[in-house]
């Protein structure tokens, strides 16, 4: 890709729950990050179809993100869609409509590419780490797990275990009943069989969370202990493991109203953070983790890295 010094790039991350925007200079300077709740998978993942209401929200969010990118001086835009668009019957049609009405082509990526982008983003946030670490990115449609040792990816896989997908499939009670927890845990344990096999070959003491669910979890843990929330400019942080384990249990047992009243809770996460908590709890129960970290960098930052490669394959548009 022919890049000009000082050029600003816009990266649109079209997730199942949230559409994210990152405007960044080719020199790495952060210009403008934005996010909008879209809930692209709401009401549709069970039927494998994006609903008309969700499609309308997606189009409005992309139009707003494009306007913000232009305000920030971006001259080129790259859009990437993940689980909801790749797994639904009409995902490609929704992507085509976004391209037609905004002029921004949408690259629908598979789970392997999604995991690779996430690994690239997390590595930017924690470049000094060399010990084996397990990256966990909880999305609405899928959850990605990546094992890194040094700079080598030992294992990477995307699983259909996003919190919106699980909520749509299992329709759990509010709060989760013991039966809900057992059914969800059984599904996650079975789906994650390849991960358990990979972890048998290498001890992995570090867990790095890299999604909006983990950002919110960090703030809820902080709020429960009257500690500072994550600064908006922060791109990484350390979790207190004992405090986190305590809050995970509270979240799993909470009602939606109780979650909404928790300091640090983001309203759009209140519907599903109890399922995220159950998923994180399962990993901490089954993997000997002794350190939990947060990465504010994930897919879109990994995309930015790939755009620096001479043979960048991704479709783009001028803004």
The fold-level CATH name of the largest domain is Nucleotidyltransferase, domain 5
Report the sheet-strand fraction: 15-25%
Largest sheet: 6 strands, mixed
Number of domains: 2
Going by CATH, the architecture of the largest domain would be: 2-Layer Sandwich
The named CATH superfamily of the largest domain: Exopolyphosphatase. Domain 2
- Summed over residues and divided by their number, the pLDDT gives a mean of 94
Oligomer: single chain
Instruction: Quickly give the structural class.
Output: alpha/beta
- In sequence order, what are the helices and strands, one letter per element? EEEHEHHEHEEEHHHEHEHHHEHE
Task: List its traits.
globular; Nucleotidyltransferase, domain 5; 319 residues; alpha/beta; 2 domains
Structure notes:
The chain folds into 2 domains: about 10-110 and about 300-319, ATPase, nucleotide binding domain (Nucleotidyltransferase, domain 5, 2-Layer Sandwich); about 110-295, Nucleotidyltransferase, domain 5 (2-Layer Sandwich). The protein is about 40% helix and about 20% strand. The protein has helices spanning about 50-70, 85, 90-100, 110-125, 165-170, 180-190, 195-200, 210-225, 240-250, 255-260, 275-285, 300-305; strands spanning about 10-15, 20-25, 30-35, 75-80, 105-110, 135-140, 145-150, 150-160, 205-210, 235-240, 290-295, 315-319. Helix 6 (about 180-190) packs across helix 11 (about 275-285), helix 8 packs across helix 9 and helix 9 (about 240-250) crosses helix 11. The longest helix has 20 residues, at about 50-70. It starts with 7 loop residues before the first strand and ends with a strand. The mean pLDDT is about 95.
